[in-house]
């Protein structure tokens, strides 16, 4: 049911995310349906396991799928409502709010860029 176009300019993990979301939207995958393991899916699609892992993590973050320990990965009960979750829109809003606060405090755009670049380059765990 999932097909990946290796020649497409769209990143492989993004293709996988979109394919899973489409299957949920069309009702081919329903809430609580099991998904193949990362190992099995990467083998079937001839993808690196890290690519599948990245897709699964992003889908889990958006509550489209859920991992239940050793029992496996399943379609989230609220997957249909969460399909339109857009982290990019949220990030834009959060960044704009923060930038506005920094500007109101008197920081210049140049200072904000330097601080942002420094913050991104700092490793945190």
TrEMBL record:
Pfam families: GntR. Residues 10-78 form the HTH gntR-type domain. This is GntR family transcriptional regulator. It comes from the Bacteria. InterPro entries: Tscrpt_reg_HTH_GntR (IPR000524), WH-like_DNA-bd_sf (IPR036388), WH_DNA-bd_sf (IPR036390). Keywords: DNA-binding, Transcription, Transcription regulation. The keyword Membrane does not apply. One of its GO terms (molecular function) is DNA-binding transcription factor activity.
């Amino acid at each position: 049911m999932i097909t990946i176009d290796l020649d497409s300019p769209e990143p492989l993990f993004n293709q996988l995310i979109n394919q899973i979301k489409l299957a949920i939207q069309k009702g081919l995958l329903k809430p609580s349906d099991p998904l193949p393991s990362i190992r099995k899916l990467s083998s079937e699609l001839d993808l690196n396991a890290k690519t599948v892992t990245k897709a699964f993590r992003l889908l889990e973050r958006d509550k489209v799928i859920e991992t239940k320990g050793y029992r496996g990965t399943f379609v989230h009960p609220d997957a249909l409502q969460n399909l339109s979750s857009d982290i990019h829109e949220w990030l834009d809003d959060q960044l704009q709010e923060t930038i506005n606060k920094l500007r109101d405090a008197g920081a210049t755009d140049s200072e904000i860029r330097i601080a942002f670049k420094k913050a991104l380059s700092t490793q945190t765990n």
